[in-house]
Amino acid sequence: MNAGGRLGAALTATLLLGAGVAWWLKAEHTQRESIHVAQVFIAHLEAKQFAQAHELTTKSGYVGANAAELEEVSKREMCRAARAVGTSPPQSNGNRLRRWALGREVEVPEVAVEFEGSCLLRVTVRRMSGGQWRVSRFVSHAG
């Protein structure tokens, strides 16, 4: 391969690498752990396992201080939630990388997980001091 061919190949490789990095930086980070906690919480509520569901909560405020209070809230707010469809606030890989580089906390303190089913259901999950995610609120809502 001549010098011009090598230069062209190097330029092409550089452009492809740059495009890949740009795509990754802009891609949304999936909040897997918070989504999992919300899904398990909903599964327990649907199975009427209120004690197990309550163990996944902040154990105060809107979700109630005990399983009986959680059961009362679920009578008002719970609906059949078939699948998780998104989280907010959105967080890109680039945003997480920037936070890490600046020495800031990478994880957001609170994530709202949206579910679709017989209604729209939002489960708010909060990151606790030990790093574990706990449900702080859930509410059915209009689109």
Query: How many beta-strand runs?
Result: 4
Task: Report Rg.
Answer: 21 Å
CATH names the topology of the largest domain as Nuclear Transport Factor 2, Chain: A
Q: Percent of residues in helical segments?
A: 40-55%
Q: What coarse outline follows from CA principal-axis ratios?
A: elongated
Q: How are the strands of the largest sheet arranged?
A: 1-2-3-4
Number of helices: 5
Low-confidence stretches: none
Mean pLDDT: 86
What is the domain tally?
2
Approximate strand percentage: 15-25%
Q: What quaternary form is this?
A: single chain
CATH class label of the largest domain:
Alpha Beta
Compact summary:
This protein is an alpha+beta fold and 143 residues long.
Question: What does it look like?
Answer:
By secondary structure, this protein is an alpha+beta fold. 45% of the residues lie in helices and 23% in strands. The protein contains 5 helices and 4 strands, in the order H-H-H-H-E-H-E-E-E. The chain has helices spanning 3-26, 32-46, 50-54, 67-77, 93-101; strands at 81-88, 110-117, 120-127, 133-141. Strands 1-2-3-4 form a 4-stranded antiparallel sheet, covered by helices on one side. It is elongated and about 75 Å long.
